[in-house]
């Protein structure tokens, strides 16, 4: 059995609904369907969810909102009519309009996009509609009650095909609660985990993840397979992938997540797998991601390691100023503290003074404009020469390497370069690993 | 003017004394001569200083020592007679024997090697003998009184050639104090600094430092020039060079130190220079050194950087256990703490438990058998591609790189490899930078 989740663009219009139907019918394992609210049909369009937020603001302060709600209502009815569905949402949409004008919470209002989307999809696919409010349970602190949720899902979802709205659930008293992050993806992930399915298919408008940022690298290769760990590392360094929290339930049950494209259903997509399931035909490097605008604080102290409190005192200065340390590579008698430029802003002088007082260094230097690039790949550890190729590609472009950090896991190498070398460096590393193979 | 210092092997026998004389006479700038006690003449021989320590032990517990002292005395008298010197030490040697049997401190006893060596050398060179006790002043806490020392040196040492015994000085009351580390080298360094000479020549039995350990690399290239900073880094990583403390006075005055070979006085030797004086015809990499037997504690924690106290808490665990952190390279959500295997011994379980309690990591792993290799060179920062060549050379040998740390100064790169790859790695890096050029 597979859980399938269709994102906003896959539910944006009747024509997209037909694509979803074709996909569901192509594989009898696709029993559980989670849907988002209709997204944009084109660049000038609005997402239903955004319109519902707007609606809530208008209606709660009592200055209209009916016009916005009219458009929302019309979007759903158009899909219904174009697909010639048995269900008629007209009445429920009007009842909901009244509810939205009453004293409802924003979570209820914005959840209606997924709710109506799922109603239409269930009717169209001939599947059973199950309201997420009945199976996704939150506790009184608005946190997911995983035990209750699992039990409810297992009670309600069996031996049939089901359509479930994503993005929300409810407390025991019926009050609707939305997920703060990860939207409908997390609903699919929770269902996949609770039911222990073979695969969680996440249908989007892209054919999976790319090995590098397409704004930097021309037409980067798609990732066929990526491990949960690699995904985490790529997303940490700015790659635009699934929100981590949304994959957590599936990850905990080791359920593969397949990122697929509703508009090109035969594309291979990206399969997110547990570590053991990687196959060795893949590229050595899985992906390259990076972030700009870090600051380096270099601290030099003769016989640094002989002062056993040195590192602790140094870290304390940053902690006391509420600044996260991202990396701290060191050479002999010199350590480089890498922090976010934004977090340091306005605190430079204070930090330097405090390091001076607490750590008595021989020299402190602060340099901005550092970019960090992560070269990520589970297979890197198995093959020697990866570092050599990374640094070779940068040397060919005459990029000056400002720092290197690699822990004992060769899952990734972090390289620091000047901001102005950022794009060039990513392109060079990409070419070395993906174009030369 | 130059200060010259001659080590134990340069003063081991009459034949060595003649070499010293030839060297002094070859350059009229060589006015100040510091000597060590006679060293070994061959592998079966003993150093005078070692024999004096032995003598002290015997004589202080009153069970002889005369036989040992006889050999010491004979060594000096043989040199005196073979060189047909005007001076006759016979009487003073016998007086000293009596003194050693009285209630003298060990510092006095062991200082006599340099004392008599200098007396002979002064007579042989026709220079003035100045006892170190008169110019190297220690305070009541046995620490060098730099101000007094400088003043005394400037008063006594001018307009002539002088021979001064190394290794010791005296308190104001005349009590002899020896230097705890660095022996006669530090005496030369202090004299060079106090007199502001042009160069401090340190004459030894090797033609300078080598680019790598000759026990690992066959016939490694000598270093023509090395900066104080590079020397510090090479010595930190186990290269057998001058003791840091012994070069400090000269370093503070930016006086170049020239390591030369008494047995091959025309060899270029190694010139230790301040940073600015490096010349760009040198190799990119100055030297390669390394140490075995480090332990890595890998700590993995999801969203590590979001816990701003994480690094401080981690460092505190090691501090509380009195363990120095040598490096802590990190990747995403994973940091590797590198410590000395010896310091960790017996504390492994305790450390892991404490990290678990204070840092709540997702995973901790401890691995021994790590070697650290430092590739050092002031010129590295100026040329791109150094990292590429370092890692390329290791890849060619299929060495698995277990960690990399490079701060923002490209003065050195620290690479971690398994102990069993240590020699192979040093050889590979050496070949890449010194044989292929």
Plain-language structure description:
2 copies of one chain form a homodimer. The first copy, chain A, has 437 residues and is α/β, with parallel strands linked by helices. The first copy, chain A, has 2 domains: 2-205, 3-Layer(aba) Sandwich (Carbamate kinase), CATH 3.40.1160.10; 287-435, VC0802-like, CATH 3.30.2130.10. Helix content of chain A is 40%, strand content 21%. Chain A contains 15 helices and 17 strands. In chain A, the strands form 3 sheets. In chain A, strands 3-5-2-1-8-10-11-9 form an 8-stranded mixed beta sheet, sandwiched between helices. A 6-stranded antiparallel beta sheet of chain A has the order 13-14-12-15-17-16. The first copy, chain A, has a 3-stranded mixed beta sheet with strand order 4-6-7. In chain A, α14 (386-396) crosses α15. The longest helix of chain A is centred in the first third of the chain and has 20 residues, at 106-125. Chain A is globular and about 80 Å long. Chain A starts with a strand and ends with a helix.
